[in-house]
Design a protein that fits this description.
By secondary structure, the protein is mainly α. The chain has 3 helices and no strands. The chain has one domain.
Length: 60
């Protein structure tokens, strides 16, 4: 089976992630939140998240 991404590209990606740890972490949180909302959240979960979002918006 042939690889879709070269070893050099993988190394470059890992290097970028090491240099940009905070952005990588935030992007991971964002992906995880979307996955939870789209695939696993109940109506109660969504209501709680709406409330948290409104509170955060008021703070900002």
């Amino acid at each position: 089976m042939k690889k879709k991404v070269s070893d050099a590209q993988i190394r470059a990606s890992r290097s970028w992630e090491q240099k940009n740890k905070e952005k990588t972490k935030i992007d991971t949180y964002r992906r995880t939140a979307r996955l939870f909302i789209n695939n696993h959240a109940s109506l109660e979960d969504l209501e709680m998240l709406k409330k948290l979002i409104e509170e955060k918006e008021n703070i900002l």
